[in-house]
Amino acid sequence: MKFKVEFKYLSDVGKSRKNNEDNVLVADELDFAIVADGMGGHNSGEVASKIAVSVTKEKYESMANTQVKPPDYDEKYSLRANQLAFAVKLANSIIYEAGNSDKNNTGMGTTASALVLNGGKFSIAHVGDSRIYLLRKNILQQLTTDHSLVMEHVKKGLLTKEQADKSPLQNILTRALGTQKNPGVDIYEVPVEDQDRVILCSDGLFKAMSEEDMVKIINENEDNHKACAKLVETANINGGPDNITVVIGLIQKKNWKETIKDVLKKSYA
Hints:
Helix content is 37%, strand content 26%. The protein is of the alpha+beta class. Strands 2, 3, 4, 5, 6 and 9 form a 6-stranded antiparallel sheet that branches. Strands 1-11-10-7-8 form a 5-stranded antiparallel sheet. A hairpin with a 4-residue loop joins strand 2 (22-27) and strand 3 (32-39). The two termini are 22 Å apart. The model has no long low-confidence stretch (mean pLDDT 92).
């Protein structure tokens, strides 16, 4: 079965920040989306997140077009997943060098959560505490794991997830692009189903509302552009404590015309 994805997105400065250090990039021709939440003094966070989204997209696209197999290939995952993870690693190297070559950018970093529709599955590369969720049949599942101190405490049984959500240590990351020379990049691959919705978001969204409210808002708004707008509006009503970025992608089965078009496109490539 062949699938397609349609993305809608929105990013907002929120109520407590002067500038938006989040960056988002959607490339429909690649079935690709990425969210990055920057951090650092001056405008460094915004610089880091912009590098993350642009370099990841450009490197992934070039590798996907040439079918090149990246170094440190993990056989547990597909070629597309390995290419995406390598693109994120390259973005890290550029951000890390930029942070060390300019004192104004010292310590800058960013999260990065990137996703591509890869045949009948999502391929994901992830660093930091932005999140990717899957909404299927009214059940919301967090696909990524937060690289944060409180999540480490949850894993060790020192905190419940509910306690972690209210902890003052929420914002302390254990992994981010640019802050380490070789941070681990998590790879995930998840099978898709017709009418799945995938949500990519920065912490400004999920820290401003419950997951139950997220599901309710998305279910009440079939138009994903309107759903994004309502999610951002609700986060701001709840205080807007950070920049807010959300991407929603709808998975649908391709019809026979679209499938034939794909076959012809490949045969003439």
